[in-house]
Queue: 3 jobs
Job 1
Amino acid sequence: MSEIRVQGRFHIVYVLQYIRYGLLLCLVPMLQALLRFDLPSLYTALRQDTVILISMGVFSLVIWRRVGFCLTDRALTLRFGLLFRQELTILPEQVAVVELDRPLFLRLMGCTRVRLYAASCASFGRVQCYLPRRHAAVLAECMLPVKSDSSLFAPTGAERIRFTMLSANLLTTAALVVFSARQTQEILGQNLVFDLGQLAMSNLERLEQLVELVLPAGVAWLFTLVFTLWGIALFWSLMATANFRVSRSGGVILSKGGRINHTECRVLASAVSYCDIRVTPAARLLRRYPVFLCAGSYTGADLPILVYSKGQEALLQALMPRFTGPQPVAGITQKRSWPQFLWKSGSLFLLCAALTAVSAWRLPDLTPLMVIPTLVSAALLAVSAEAWFTEGVRRNPNGTLAVCYTRFFTRHHLCVFTSDLSYTSWQTPFSETIARCTLWIHLPCRKRLRVRSIKRYEADRLKLVL
């Protein structure tokens, strides 16, 4: 007989998604009122919006009363659906990662967003639900119990600064700023957002005027925008990495932290498919490299599990005993094709250099602005040339797979622990004459790794060892 640990309905936050659909439907009557632009049409639109919101509220409450969960000592059962009932039963051995996320707006309501990732993508993949805080903690402890959380990695001082800088993501922050601006426009209205935008633009223009004292006008505006986004990214990373620590208890890797948004991630160590050491431009300057984990259907997050430097293999081996540090592959450059690595970045560099030369000849005012993409493409060309010396794959003595490949400005060093792999090799007539091929490695998380211009007999040998 199974013992029930906790059971009940999802948190009321679960129905907010249906309320959002109702708000979108309310735009239709308001749009009709704006087209007619008279007072009776406005009253009609308000009555229709009221009916829509009440209907969506009743519909959401009906759904909320029919969904729920039941956690026993053997399994977790989730109930979904209104007309067609769906029950999903998840066993503890099927779970690779439990992720608890508590943003500020969920903390105020005592709610936790729970994500469960399957140990195999062939099962349920990923499931998300909203539970009360106490129930979420019990669920995480039942699925992946942690007996002790003595820290193996807890950055402080200068190490905290490096960890914050390496965790900052400029692209993610830019997307977040754009999304937040659109959400604010929907909530506060066009006029108020326009005033806030004017205020932000005036402050940016003042900062641009200061930068123009050192840099040309066009470059100053671009530098100001990048500097502002980078500052926001650093602040967001600073909040996310506050009180961050990583530990291992038995077979579970635990990471938690955050100042405004509290996060906790429990990873089953035996389900880890690979760890990824990323050599980014910032990592090259700081000589510290962020490490990301992939386990089952969990492909990692924006926040790394820890920061690695040469000589710290013992730290990663404490988390994953089979870890082997990055090592060069012998004879990797013999008969390797330069064009396969350089044709994209080289073409981009030549194009930017040609445009810069033309601007220097015909439009000198644009030359400082054109120098920036030329320098960026030159850096990309240098990273591609480095990939000619480093990109490769080999089997480690302990049975793990070492993979090194380059994507854009980042070099990835992977230590693959799982043997659940498949391979695809690809050859051109030219690469066939020099007995080399491009190898695609397919992982359980549906991710593909591309390793260019490796020896054909080494690729065939990898395919035989499964």
Note: The mean pLDDT is 80.
Job 2
Amino acid sequence: MFVLFAATAFADDPALARTAWDRPFAMGTYAVVRGGDYQASGLGGRARWQPSPHVGVEGYLEATVVDVAGGFRHDYPNGFNVFVPVQMGPFRARAFLGFCDVLSFVEPAQEGAPRADDVLIGAHGGLGAELAVAPGWSVFVEGQTDVYAGHDRASRGWTGDVGEDLLPFWTGQVNAGVQMHLAGLR
């Protein structure tokens, strides 16, 4: 509802878009939902630097809980994106590519049982949309596809198991959140 109000209230205000898009630094937080080879949800945070109107970089860290049988799995995806924004007043679309890893921990249900932990390495790409909603603030939604290389793991309740072969894992991801744009004008 707030986003709809902000979109109509500020859609014709070029100063609003300038206050957000002309600031080279931003910090944001967002909700994460993943599907594909595994389902997960959680929260993320990112820091962004956009040295020119045409390109920027951002680093991110997410904390997710993954749906697994016989235990508890928590993943910590982190990495960076290079993005190219296209501005249309208070709206902005962006395409991005990046590299990432996931620190993944599987804890069996049985206390003291061996864990099944791994590091997955990957790459991703996606599209996003942003809307300046207040001076120095924007909201965003984005979708991305990730491919990771890692080991198959399982928890049988009483022990963890890590496979020997390096396998690909595919996920689709949707992020939705808010950003605060920092620092002076470019």
Note: The first helix runs from residue 2 to 10.
Job 3
Amino acid sequence: MHTRLPSPTFNDISWTTQLDDAIQCNNLAQMWQLVQIHADQDEGTRQLVDRIPRMTHQINRRTYFSELFLMPVIVWGDSDAFENSSCWREDYACVDEVLLSWFPPPTYTMIFHGLRSFDHLGSWQPAIIRQHLQRAIGSTSVSKIRYTVELIKLPLMAPRLGFATMVLTSKLGWPVLPGARPDLDHRLRQVIAYALHNTPGSQVPIPIALPPDRLKDAVTRGVVLWLEQLHHACPILGWSTSPHAKSADVVVITLRLDSEPSWTQFAVRNHHIGLEGLRSILLQLQIMAPNLEQAKDA
């Protein structure tokens, strides 16, 4: 008589340990292999996205919890705010002060110099994110990591997306964002927007800043806002998506614009935004323009 063997159970503790090891070793292929064998694909992806930008360390036997946060900023084409140290240096004190007053007092905040353009952020592998965390906690083992930046080709006056980068550290557990505070949020957005608007009185629109958020939410909200502003400036006529030829982690989004250049591409990384973030971005595109692949199939 045939006896059915019990189905193997999923060992969450063992899986989590292996995932943490893969993150420590920057083995992105192994990270996604572990996600694939998780009993719940959405939960496995969520665990990956949540764990990469977090790090613990100890000082005098006290555990501290650090996490990377980003603040999305939209600026227009001729702005020199990105990767421009002299521009940021003039505005840094103002930005630093308003951000420090916005975060809850028990949290220590380290704000990195300058704005990282989305062109750069789209190239960040887990090792880059972990390097930022190590620098924030004062690790002596931080090494310079090189990566290739694929510039997003846009019309001259099109909006561009960037991020202020910061690491929050708490001794009470993972850092948490303050609750809804409309007045403080409005002041934060106004101060940062005007601080970065270095050509007052010109026809260049004032930058748009969103409050800081966790990596996955900041990137998702930033991309959605950027697509809205881009569609307003030079309408998006169609779009398509495709996996990157060399990495299953990367999704390449192609846009057809009513401008010159008429085509552009940008990449989003699944370990930055997760499945939920990718769905939000694609939903925004569906609202604005037809999917070129679906139109071709029809």
Note: The mean pLDDT is 86.
